[in-house]
Amino acid sequence: MKNIKNKIAIFVVSCFALFALQTSASSVEGLSIGLGYHTGGAMGTGTEKKSDDTANTTEEDGAFAYDTPSVFVEFALNDQFSMGVEYHPDAIDTPENLNKQDNGNGVNANDGGSLSNKVKASFEEHTTVYANINMPFNTYLRLGYVMTDVATKESLATGGAYNDADTDGYQVGLGYNHSVDNGFFVRVEVVATEYNDISATNVNDSEKTVTVSEMYGATASIKIGRSF
């Protein structure tokens, strides 16, 4: 992913610097680590076109459900505000889409003279830099900046392939935090994410492009962790 490692490194170093200003060198007070499990869904619109020829434009909406784990590290800068990084180690895979086209010999695809195109995508290295703002009754507002790689996994009988891409976006959510003994806590979150559009060009036909737009996701998650 473009610059993702640098962005995360800058963020973590900045958090350590802010944290060091508020605590002694021998203390880890304010640090939290944890695990999450998310279930949710995503949707988007895919458009394939050749140059500006609308007759050769195909557009299709799609939606899918997924489950994924995460790990996170977080620093409480004060009683009201904390910042963290959350990472999903597993890829989030879309379902495979099958499209049949005429084989170019005038035989209708439904008559067996078709070419099968199979397409799916994986959202990999999904990383969120976020801030939690504490509110009354142990609730909090979550604001996040999301970065992810989009790996295309296509098998096109009509020829060609598409390069991988990356995208980013913004996230907003609400959560409830319940603290238990010895610094442990349990959280429940509901989060919505909007991703920026992505576009890829066919490596064997530069006039053919695929654009994915109107990408949204919503998840509910449960998290467990410990504060030090």
Extended strand count: 11
Helix content: under 10%
Structural class: mainly beta
End-to-end C-alpha gap: 32 Å
Tell me the count of domains. Answer: 1
**Shape, per Cα inertia axes:** elongated
Major sheet: size, sense and barrel closure?
Answer: 8 strands, antiparallel, barrel
Low-confidence stretches: 105-111
**How are strands sequenced across the largest beta sheet?**
1-2-3-6-7-8-9-11
> What would you say the CATH architecture is?
Beta Barrel
Order of helices and strands: HEEEEEEEEEEE
Mean pLDDT across every amino acid position:
79
CATH class group: Mainly Beta
Description:
The chain is mostly beta strands. It has a single domain, classed as Porin (Beta Barrel), CATH 2.40.160. The protein contains 1 helix and 11 strands. About 3% of the residues have low confidence.
Task: Describe the protein's topology.
Blueprint: H1 4-22, E1 31-50, E2 53-76, E3 81-87, E4 92-93, E5 97-102, E6 114-134, E7 139-156, E8 165-179, E9 184-195, E10 198-202, E11 205-227
Antiparallel strand pairs: 1-2, 1-11, 2-3, 3-6, 4-6, 5-6, 6-7, 7-8, 8-9, 9-11, 10-11
